[in-house]
Amino acid sequence: MKQTVTLTLLAGLILCMANSSLADDYTPYYVAMGGDDNNSCTQPDHPCKSVRAALDKTGAGKSHIHIARGTYAESSTIDIPAGKNIIFSGGWSDDFTVQQCQPGNTIITPAGQTSPLLFKNFIDGVGKEATVGLRCLTLNGKGVANSRAIYAKASNGRIFTINFDQALVTGWTGWMLEFSTHGNGSSGTVTMHDSTVADNPGNSGYSPAIMTVGAYGSSSLDLDLDRVRFVNNGAVQTSNELYGYAYDSSRLNIQATNCLFSHRYPTSNTVILTASNDSGILNFSLLNSTVTTLQTSNPWILKADAVDTSTSTLRLTNTLLTGATSTGQTTFIYQRDTAAIDVSADYSILGTPHILVSDPNKVTWTSTNEVYGDPRLDTSGHLHNGSVAIDSGICGFNAFGYHRIAPYEDMDGDKRPGDGESLGCDIGADEFHAFPWPAFLPAIVRPHQ
Question: Does residue 155 have a pLDDT over 80?
Answer without folding.
Answer: yes
